[in-house]
Design brief:
The protein is mainly alpha-helical. It has helices spanning about 1-10, 15-60, 60-70, 70-110. Helix 2 runs antiparallel to helix 4. The termini are close together. The mean pLDDT is about 80.
């Protein structure tokens, strides 16, 4: 690619800037969004862990939960933990799709 870009620069002058800008963009997008993607992935994993801990506690103490009459409260706690997990996973998937599409589009434009 670099040899072709150099030859285009020799023939057309500024034709070299197009592939250069696309190459820089294809590197910049994943680098800039990488930390945010990592934070979103960590939040998703933490939400999943919180939900699993909550469900483990409910299941292991089901007898005492039923006897105390707090089954509906325990169910609401598990449901809120699940909603938190879904929201965190949704944001992670959106950013991941953005990074993947940006990388794929710039690779197609660079090499295609």
């Amino acid at each position: 690619m670099s040899v072709g870009a150099y030859l285009l620069y020799q023939v057309a002058g500024l034709a070299f800037l197009g592939p250069l800008i696309l190459s820089l963009f294809s590197i910049a997008v994943p680098v800039l969004l990488g930390p945010r993607l990592a934070r979103c992935q960590r939040a998703t994993l933490e939400a999943t862990e919180k939900r699993l801990r909550s469900m483990t506690q409910i299941v292991s103490n089901i007898r005492s939960v039923r006897m105390a009459g707090v089954l509906s409260f325990a169910g609401e706690e598990a449901l809120s933990a699940r909603r938190l997990e879904i929201d965190a996973a949704r944001l992670y998937r959106k950013i991941f799709i953005l990074v993947a599409c940006a990388g794929k589009c710039t690779m197609v434009l660079n090499w295609g």
